[in-house]
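Dear colleagues,

I hope this message finds you well. In preparation for our joint manuscript, I am sending the Imelysin-like domain-containing protein (Neptunomonas japonica JAMM 1380) sequence together with its predicted structure, so that both groups work from identical material. I would be grateful if you could confirm receipt.
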Amino acid sequence: MLPTGSLTPVLLGVTLCILGAGAVHAASSQAPSEKQWHTLNNAIIEQHVLPRYQRLADNSDVMSQQLKRLCTTPNSDNLNAAQTSFNAAQASWQGVQHIQFGPVTMLMRNHSLQYWPDKKNTGAKQLKSILKTTDQAFDDEFFRSASISLKGFPALERLLFAKNKRIQNSKAVECSLATAIALHIHETSLSIQSEWAEEARQISLAGQDALPSDSHAAAYQAYETPSEASTEFMKSLVEPVEAIRDNKLLKPLAASAEESRWKKSESWRSEQSVNNIQQNLAALHELYSGTQPISVKTLLEAAGDTLNAQAIDAEFNRISEDLNSVSAIAQLNVTPETHQTLMHTSDQLKALQGKLTAAMQTLNIQLGFNSRDGD
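The corresponding structure tokens are as follows:
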């Protein structure tokens, strides 16, 4: 017999309620199946990754041709055209910069395309040194041994947007080096695009019990399950948000407009730093909800978290609207109004990071080690 006033019945009732609520939650919240992850992987590859690498290859080709034209016929019109083509190619890279796995990581090509942030100003030092040479051939052998800080967009930006405009001298080292870097960026982009065919094949093979009969596929399988491959795409969605906030906004903005150090921003010479962030966020938004017939958003909704699924979409839209209201920052002049808007964007990115992290828990995705931890 229970003592008078015993809490046992109450605690038992509470326990049953908790267990019942947990059962209801489990019934309404179910992580995606491997089949769903497989479908999502294919959609992301076909509709997001491959088109964006194609755009980078196409726009870097135009840039390479414009650099050749500039150095063949140096004048203001050709310089403007070369700068415009650079901006378009760089925007294409920003639109796929978040994919930090697969072919782009081979031979550190991700860092070769863009060595940034350059905390020790290595690029400036290396560029200053190489520009003193008079007999250097900027060929394949040069790029095989050159510093990664000399191979990509930051080095080319320094040459194309230098105030001295020495690049308009067809005989200057600046001109031949810039032409070579532009070609190297294009060739690197083509290689990455081509190699994604094999990466896509490996992702498609994930989880198959019976592999194709060809010996290469049987000998090597990069991903054991579709969800393992999907984890790489989810890292590409979640992890860049913090990097954008910390490196592209907070560090150059500082505490106030007066204290801002916009030279620490990503592409201040070409006045593309804000546009870079716009391209980054547009790409992440597409990765989140822009694929058909399935997307990360629809998986989140199917898992029972419709509220957060819609909140993430709304957060992306609000950030986009705010960034679209910010003009390109010219002459390193960060106005108080611009500073306030971008700091608000930083706060929104922090909120977005939290929502995306929660979404990964709902989807049962373990992101694991973040390469930025400890920075």
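For the figure legend, we might mention the following. The chain has 14 helices and no strands. The mean pLDDT is 90.

With kind regards,
E.M.
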